[in-house]
Amino acid sequence: MLSPEKNHLLTSIEPGSEMGAYLRRYWHPISGAADLDTVAIKPIRLFGENLVLYKDLEGNFGLVDRQCAHRSADLAYGYVEKCGIRCSYHGWLFDHAGRCLEQPFEQTVLPQSRYREKVKLKSYPVQKKAGLLFAYLGDGEPPLLPDWEPFSRTDGFVQVVTADVPCNWLQCQENSIDPVHFEWMHSNWSARMRGTDELGPAHTKLGFEEFERGFIYKRVRADTDEDDPLWTVGRALLWPNGFFLGNHFEWRVPVDDENTLSVSWIYQAVPDERRPYVQDHIPSWKSPTTDPETGRWITTHVINQDIVGWVGQGRITDRARENLGQSDKGIVLMRNRFFAELTAVADGAEPKGLVRDPQENVALPLPVANRLSLGAGAVNGKFILHAGQPDAVREACEAAMGYPIDTSGIL
Ligand code: FES
Ligand SMILES: [Fe+2]
């Protein structure tokens, strides 16, 4: 359990908070790059700030304050130019660094004026990588955007999936170091929803280890032993708010104290006979979380089930009422590392795991327990992670794989 004060320290991420300032020291994925193919400007809320993400006519990405620096009109209703975003109210133009490039009427009546040089719109750097857009919202010199090994994999189909999750980021991230929930939430609950009693293999042993990039959890189940890669290799909680499962990443990006953006990057290897395969476009789509017919949370897909777990805990779960057990040892390790990090960073230390060496930042390795399923001839005829995959994405994936894909979920 955590006292209300300690819970507040870890969960409060809006401007002025210690944890928000800490998390901002990392790059965060905030959108699929393809989202900006069809709309040039996307309003987005991050860490309690209202912003707009845009792609200008030259293809540069920007992330700036949603409210214009002139008189606060909504830049979500602006329009992009060759360079930057223009406010539709009086035409002021801003670039990706928040510089005011034009003030049309001011420049007409006072051509010598240098007023625009004094005007600055809040802005944050954006980088595109592997079909994702990452933003750095922190102070100081940004670290390098990590070049995780899967980002340079070839011969696979990648898709980006986002979902709006109406609860605090930390309860989502606690799921990244919670192996036992796989057995119950994904195996056994799904079996019951299917109307069967085919329970999944029970966990018999867990291990947790810290490493440079986060924590690794390891598991032995009734159907495996200590030679199994899920024990010898494990899976990674990626510090501070990611989860890496070998063939996909999940990040829990704080929107504000009561909302989180779930961002998944999913890689699926093509079968042997389809190689070499080059993907020319990484699609991005938003997964629904509720069933419009019943108003209930969607429970047919793995991450949708996870979301049921997270939101069920409340908008900001009350950790004073919890009763932790043996399955929660990793969660305790993670929380304690966050407390230690906040203290260390307040004393001037660098946050854990930042990458600053460009030579090191090349295909950074992460543990991959399921290497075999990524390899030659892998056949995965189901897409089970998120509900609502658009037909166009399914068709593109089928064209890559050469076999049909069932998107109906795990029920
Ligand atoms: S409010 Fe944006 S230009 Fe005037
Ligand atoms: Fe899960």
What would you note in describing this structure?
By secondary structure, the chain is an alpha+beta fold. The protein folds into two domains: 27-136, Rieske [2Fe-2S] iron-sulphur domain (Rieske Iron-sulfur Protein, 3-layer Sandwich); 149-401, Naphthalene 1,2-dioxygenase Alpha Subunit, Chain A, domain 1. Helices cover 24% and strands 25% of the residues. The protein is built from twelve helices and 19 strands. It has helices at 4-11, 18-23, 35-38, 104-109, 115-118, 169-174, 180-194, 229-232, 302-312, 329-346, 371-374, 391-401, and strands spanning 27-32, 41-46, 49-55, 61-65, 79-80, 85-86, 93-94, 100-102, 123-124, 126-129, 132-136, 156-165, 203-211, 214-221, 235-238, 242-244, 248-256, 259-269, 284-286. It has an eight-stranded mixed β-sheet with strand order 13-14-15-16-17-18-12-19. Strands 2-3-4-9 form a four-stranded antiparallel β-sheet. Strands 5-6-7-8 form a four-stranded antiparallel β-sheet. The longest helix has 18 residues, at 329-346. Fe (ii) ion is lined by residues 175, 181, 185-186, 302, 306.
